[in-house]
């Protein structure tokens, strides 16, 4: 039974996407909702209107808003002033809807419950996907490991928060530079791009130098 009949959802994409856009649109249509797509040049956000003003206007017309953009603070402004649910489709700091989809995929491919799984992320430890994966894993009790060069580890405040969540859920959180030990007995090995959308490409050489040993290959 469709659960979103007669609902309207605004999709704000300050960053283009294929999978995130189609995922939200198809899911909304399947549940009976209507969507309006605002692309990178399809609104006045940041030009003639602030995010706060946009949130107030869209919140009166729509039942929910999806936001995919740059700063996490923009998504939080939407959530504060819209008065309707706001879905984070990606920011520079987080990608929580991706992690929800990943957890569903993990359940499809193994008989284990999430709290019995071991998941290893290999690559940039402060990547938005890595950060969201660590937070999500800590909340559901996963044994989460991040194999990353120390230069690219998340900050200690974030790590302390994740460890606190993991302790309460029965999960584990580990940061290590050694790929081999991190992937041992892992149920899933995860990686992401070495440079995110919108990052300064002048940093490519340094990123390659740091992450060459952190490729997910058949040997891994």
Overview of this structure, please?
- This protein is α/β, with parallel strands linked by helices and 220 residues long.
- The protein has two domains: 8-90, Rossmann fold (3-Layer(aba) Sandwich); 96-214, Aspartate/ornithine carbamoyltransferase (Rossmann fold).
- It contains eight helices and eight strands; from the N terminus they run E-H-E-H-E-H-E-H-E-H-E-H-E-H-E-H.
- The chain has helices at residues 19-30, 51-61, 72-81, 96-108, 128-140, 156-169, 179-183, 204-211; strands at 8-13, 34-38, 64-68, 86-90, 118-122, 143-147, 172-176, 188-190.
- Strands 2-1-3-4 form a four-stranded parallel β-sheet, sandwiched between helices. Strands 7-6-5-8 form a four-stranded parallel β-sheet.
- Helix 2 crosses helix 3 (72-81), helix 4 (96-108) packs across helix 5 (128-140) and helix 5 packs parallel to helix 6 (156-169).
- The model has no long low-confidence stretch (mean pLDDT 95).
Give the low-confidence spans. Answer: none
Note the run of SSEs as H and E: EHEHEHEHEHEHEHEH
Biggest sheet character: 4 strands, parallel
Rough shape? Answer: globular
Helical run tally: 8
Q: Helix amount, in percent?
A: 25-40%
| Overall number of domains | 2
């Amino acid at each position: 039974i469709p659960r979103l009949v007669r609902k309207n959802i605004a999709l704000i994409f300050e960053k283009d996407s294929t999978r995130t856009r189609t995922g939200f649109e198809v899911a909304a249509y399947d549940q009976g909702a209507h969507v309006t797509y605002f692309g990178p040049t399809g609104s006045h956000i940041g030009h003639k209107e602030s995010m706060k003003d946009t949130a107030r206007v869209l919140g009166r017309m729509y039942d929910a808003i999806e936001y995919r953009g740059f700063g996490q603070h923009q998504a939080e402004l939407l959530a504060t002033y819209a008065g309707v649910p706001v879905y984070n489709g990606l920011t520079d700091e987080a990608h929580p809807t991706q992690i929800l989809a990943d957890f569903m995929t993990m359940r499809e491919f193994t008989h284990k419950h999430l709290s019995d799984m071991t998941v290893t992320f290999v690559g940039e430890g402060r990547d938005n996907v890595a950060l969201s994966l660590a937070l999500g894993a800590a909340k559901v009790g996963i044994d989460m490991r991040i194999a990353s060069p120390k230069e690219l580890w998340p900050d200690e405040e974030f790590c302390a928060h994740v460890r606190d969540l993991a302790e309460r859920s029965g999960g584990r959180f580990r940061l290590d530079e050694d790929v081999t030990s991190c992937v041992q007995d892992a149920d899933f090995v995860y990686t992401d791009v070495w440079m995110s959308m919108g990052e300064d490409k002048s940093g490519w050489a340094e990123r390659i130098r740091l992450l060459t040993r952190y490729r997910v290959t058949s040997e891994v």
